[in-house]
Amino acid sequence: MDSSLWVAKTGLDAQQRRMTVVANNLANVNTTGFKRDRAVFEDLLYQTLRQPGAQMDQNSNSPTGLVLGTGTRVVATEKIHSQGNLLQTDNALDLAIDGNGFLQTLRADGTIGYTRDGSLKLNNNGQLVTANGNLLQPEVTIPNNARSITIGKDGTVSVQTFDQPAAQMVGNIQIANFINPAGLQAVGGNTYVQTAASGESQVQVPSQDGAGALVQGSLEASNVNVVEAMVNMIETQRAYEVNSKAIAAADGMLRFINNNL
Known about the structure:
By secondary structure, the chain is α+β, with helices and mostly antiparallel strands. The protein has 2 helices and 20 strands. The chain folds into 2 domains: about 1-80 and about 225-260, no CATH class; about 85-220, no CATH class. A hairpin with a 5-residue loop joins strand 7 and strand 8 (about 110-115). It starts with a helix and ends with a helix.
């Protein structure tokens, strides 16, 4: 009887973690380039009291056996890298990736980060940086006398200055792809870092060889579906309630035995 309490307890823990995942998705519904998470469950070890196929007597075997489960747990959280809606901003420094890939940034510790947040800015040196100040890689510097900035679908950055009527190219924006983007580690600040699970980054020219195209004057919205997230929240709440009722039922059975035996 005591084992049922622990099995239900694992259900409570698992549903509580799933609720944290759902709450984080809803909290980031307006975060640029955010990709929603999904909790992945697995069942725990089984107690084998009688092996399936065990010899019952000289002429028969057990058709099913007697195996008791010990509960569940959240084994992983998976990023769903589906495309978010493109929102037009008409800001020349806003970039959205239409398709696969990530912008590359130089983090404070000198490592390369990857992001889908294309709300770029200019620092005091005229270099393109992300909203949290990380330098875009490869570096692109905009001249002080630039009056307009054009970023092509292939990442070509050109400017038009006040003293020259013709546009001049000042850099190229590249994007990185991964064979398993779900294996990237989210570290906050709309940034991912490479892991052994994601594989090595493959730097590509935007809009070529299956890489996503850059869309100037737009940003990618979060891919969180609010209605779906609310349904998941209700489903998680109900599962939590069911597991708590299982604990209450097991406690009632133990109380009955204790009071009547």
